[in-house]
Amino acid sequence: MSTNGKPGQARAFLCPVCGEPTKSDIHGRIEHYIPEDGPPAEFVFLQCDHDTCAAPIVQVREDFGAGYDADPPGIYYPSPRRFSIVVPRDIQAEFTEARRCFDAKAYRATVVMVRRTLEGTCLDQGATKKTLAANLAEMKEQGKIDGVLAEWANLLRITGNAGAHFGKDVTAQDAEDALDFAEALVDHLYVLRARFDQFKARQQPSAGNSQP
């Protein structure tokens, strides 16, 4: 399935701990399914080659039918988790690019890609307005996001606008916060809402067991 995941082979990457370009031999490899009904995933164990860091790192690639080589390696540890498989792949791709921009210290590009993630999310959720601001307002009116999430999303929109214009500064902290809030928003829409609906359904008493 893979031409680049065998122990002894080397990979070059940005270390998620020290933020520097590094390379490492593959020290170990396993295949697993996360979640159990998801696609096969390849996990490889690496180590930053900088003496001042030497952090252990686990990269992951998933096979969606075209082999592992079709999926660029992502950091599984120590990094925020990937989106759930239930999140549409187009949205995952936008967010993954935002995170790669952050890893490369391209903070303006990070917030622009976060804004694109929001745009894609709104479209996938059925928003029909012409602007991102109007689509976010529509989603709030429909009850898909509450007041707090709407405030987060609107601030992400404004930050993304700033990143797209000359002369507007975006700090590393701004970019990191934008990633975290965007991830929380997408998780709420695609993962937590569905889990809550399932939880609520399990708590509903059946007709024969209803309490007086």
Task: Summarize the model shown.
With 212 residues, the chain is α+β, with helices and mostly antiparallel strands. The chain is 43% helix and 17% strand.
State the helix count.
5
The chain-level mean pLDDT equals 84
CATH fold annotation of the largest domain: Four Helix Bundle (Hemerythrin (Met), subunit A)
CATH architecture of the largest domain: Up-down Bundle
Low-confidence residue ranges: none
Distance between the termini: 58 Å
Radius of gyration based on Cα positions: 20 Å
Apparent shape: globular
Indicate how many domains the architecture comprises.
Answer: 2
H/E series, N to C? Answer: EEEEEEHHHHH
Largest sheet, described in full?
A: 4 strands, antiparallel
Top CATH class of the largest domain: Mainly Alpha
Structural class, judged by helices and strands? alpha+beta
The percent of residues in helical segments reads: 40-55%
